[in-house]
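Hi W.,

Here's what went into the run:
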Amino acid sequence: MAYKKRHDGRKFDELREVEMKVGVVDSADGSAMFRIGRTKIIAAVYGPKLLHPQRLRETDKGVLRAYYRMLPFSVGDRKNPRPGRREIELSMVIKEALESSIFLEEFGNAVIDVHIYVVQADAGSRCASICAASLALANAGVPMKDVVASVSAGVVDGQVVLDLNYQEEAHEEGYVVDMPIAYVENLDKVTLLQMDGIATEEQVKEALKLGISGCKKIKEEMQKALRQKFA
Ligand code: ADP
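Here's what came out:
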């Protein structure tokens, strides 16, 4: 049985509704809210500031640190607030996805901290986190080569789709493949590519293409949100 109609009625290449707001946390140097469908993220940036302890400093470039956390009420069953293995790993993956777009060489001895909280999870939270973090970094005035846009693509029971929601991730017939992608358009560089599931080479290529086109659409919206903030 192939996947003929999406659970939420979207076209196969259609994103969920996106909403974003830049500057949502007064005490942060930069912050943003990013929502895609029911997945909602808040990111707050602190820095660049002098890194302590001194032994962690890098003289010729700044250090970026990312902390991805799921709030206890972000999923149906209460999430233990203690950071788990998944959150620690995703923090690293998110940091790496963001890093290449930042002019870190301008911030020797400094650190930029990005705190990311999943307020509500409905799949695609790592991708939405990258978008929220990138907006917050721009809001903090951190010089960047481009904003980093991110979305997942994948395969549900043989059909390549853009931006899986949780119902699709949990689809029980056939294989489900989830492929989170982050893309920096100005560098034409994919800075996050993961894959969960089994797919053919053709499906992987098609999903990657669809994911990149989704990132480009999201980037346009991110730029609109930033322009609105700085208008
Ligand atoms: P990602 O796709 O980046 O892994 P998710 O939003 O899927 O992010 O995941 C966060 C965690 O929350 C996962 O463990 C996932 O199983 C769970 N989760 C996501 N959406 C829901 C939901 N609607 N109901 C229950 N659990 C969910």
